[in-house]
Specification:
By secondary structure, the chain is an all-alpha fold. The chain contains 22 helices and two strands. It has two domains: about 260 residues, no CATH class; about 200 residues, no CATH class. A two-stranded antiparallel sheet has the order 1-2. The structure holds iron/sulfur cluster (2 copies).
């Protein structure tokens, strides 16, 4: 018996063994997920649900809190996504309904010979970062949360863009380089407690076919479209949890495994499909946009923003809201982050005593320390909306069914809060403290990874710790302001 066959037998026997830290070995859920078509089932369910949301958005009630499109997109989707990222991983990408038009695009592109490689200058996160900025400005300018019709059209454009991009470009071009939701999920999953990764390095070393990346010729299962070769994969960046690698691996050597959350932020190996974090300005920009947007998105919903907009509009003598929004977002996304990162990086380098180190290198290395706090702010914000308006889905569905001619009883419009109101701020505080704790740990570990010497690391870390502390105060200030209850239903509407 060849050593490869022995390895295979060992793998098969282990496949049956329950391991608490590997979700793919759990009873019921493990066999379901290991079934090659499980993802299609989840995608189809979400596609059907999204089609209903789009339909209601186009022809249903015009009041946002009564419409399935707005309630599901702005209250439930966002809240459930951040909570799933916190406790499990990138579950939305795993079941993403936009994958189905992508598959159609892939098929059409291959059939008509339209597919080519993504141009080299687009193989990065710059476009995605720009799209995120455009989205956040549009969200405020057009009050997207308040318009079922616009929300429906956003969903439709998403399907069309995924279809077109994957018709013309090979690989998972839409997921990796374009999709703003995907980038948010990659960012959030950096803090998740699980990862798709190999079970045993020796099995990979003995494997000659590398089907997890090359595809499995026997079963026709494709390998990882996002170029995350399992042997060299490190962390969740760019991983859609699609499980293609799991289905392709002939040795059943890939699991959905528990891990030390955040660790991937402080190590800096050359990662498959990504390279080194510290060498990529585009990833730095993506981190900055998503951390900053956590603040700007929440800031856009509190009372002081209206006074600030008025002051800017008066100064510019503008009657439209757009100039003041562009000023606020321009300062927030660009000017403030550049100044703050340059000053913090400068003092970090000064205190470390490594004056020869390029400032850009210091910033690209330490910016990941801000990711956990940024995610904590997203959690505190989106969980607030979900916990204050989560139960509105019940009367909204009742109303939708009644309008469709299916008797679902009198809509219970008084339903809304998932937890008592006085739980909200303590829960937000927990999320913010989790974020700040994570940022402090990551910041110090980055310094240690970078400088090896504890004293040097501590000195280099101090300016970043001060920045994290100030960002925490800013987050608390925002959370303590009265917040608009966007998309939430009130009795009497
Ligand atoms: S994960 Fe990839 S390299 Fe490792 S055993 Fe499976 S196919 Fe081979
Ligand atoms: S590594 Fe690639 S194939 Fe495997 S789950 Fe992640 S994105 Fe999918």
């Amino acid at each position: 018996m060849s050593s490869e066959m022995i390895v295979q037998l060992n793998e098969k026997s282990r496949r049956m063994k329950f391991t608490a830290g590997d979700i793919l070995t759990w009873p019921l859920i493990g066999p379901f997920l290991r079934w090659r078509y499980s993802r299609r089932v989840m995608q189809t369910v979400l596609l059907l649900a999204t089609s209903v949301f789009v339909f209601d958005g186009l022809v249903g009630p015009v009041q946002a809190p009564k419409n399935l499109a707005t309630v599901s997109a702005w209250v439930h989707y966002r809240g459930l996504v951040v909570l799933a990222l916190l406790v499990a991983g990138n579950l939305f990408c795993m079941a993403c309904p936009f994958m189905l038009p992508r598959e159609v695009g892939r098929w059409l592109g291959a059939k008509w010979g339209l597919q080519g490689n993504v141009p080299k200058f687009l193989r990065n996160k710059w476009l995605a970062a720009l799209l995120l900025i455009i989205f956040f400005i549009s969200y405020e300018y057009w009050d997207l949360w308040a318009s079922p019709w616009l929300t429906a059209w956003i969903l439709i454009s998403y399907f069309l863009t995924a279809l077109v991009v994957d018709t013309f470009f090979k690989g998972a071009a839409f997921c990796k380089y374009v999709c703003p939701l995907g980038q948010f999920n990659f960012f959030g999953s950096l803090s998740s407690p699980t990862e798709i990764k190999i079970r045993d390095a020796k099995t990979c070393a003995a494997c000659h076919t590398k089907d997890c990346i090359a595809g499995n010729r026997q079963t026709g299962q494709r390998g990882c479209e996002l170029w995350l070769f399992q042997e060299k994969k490190s962390g969740n960046m760019d991983c859609t949890f699609c499980l293609d690698c799991v289905y392709a691996c002939p040795h059943d050597n890939i699991g959905w495994q528990a891990r030390l959350p955040l660790q991937e932020l402080w190590i800096d190996p050359r990662r498959a499909g990504i390279g080194r974090f510290s060498q990529r300005w585009d990833l730095t920009a993506l981190m900055v946009v998503l951390v900053t947007a956590a603040y700007l998105n929440a800031f856009g919903m509190i009372t002081p923003v209206y006074a600030l907009q008025q002051v800017i509009s008066d100064a510019l003598n503008a009657t439209s809201e757009l100039p003041s929004l562009l000023v606020i977002f321009g300062v927030g996304f660009l000017i403030l982050p550049v100044i703050i990162l340059a000053v913090t990086g400068y003092f970090s380098r000064l205190l470390s005593g490594r004056s020869g180190e390029p400032l850009g290198q210091v910033i690209r290395r330490f910016v990941y320390a801000l990711a956990p706090l940024g995610f904590g702010v997203w959690l505190a914000h989106y969980a607030f909306h979900f916990l204050t308006g989560g139960l509105t889905i019940i009367p909204v569905v009742q109303s939708f069914l009644n309008d469709a001619g299916v008797s679902a009883g009198q809509p219970q419009w008084q339903l809304g809060q998932v937890v008592p109101a006085d739980w909200l701020f303590p829960l937000q505080t927990i999320f913010l403290y989790l974020g700040v704790f994570g940022s402090m740990v990551v910041g110090f570990q980055i310094a240690l990874y970078q400088y090896k010497d504890r004293h040097v690391a501590l000195r280099a870390f101090i300016p970043w710790a001060i920045l994290v502390g100030l960002l925490l105060l800013a987050a608390f200030w925002i959370m303590l302001q009265p917040m608009e209850m966007r998309g939430t239903l009130f009795i009497g509407l």
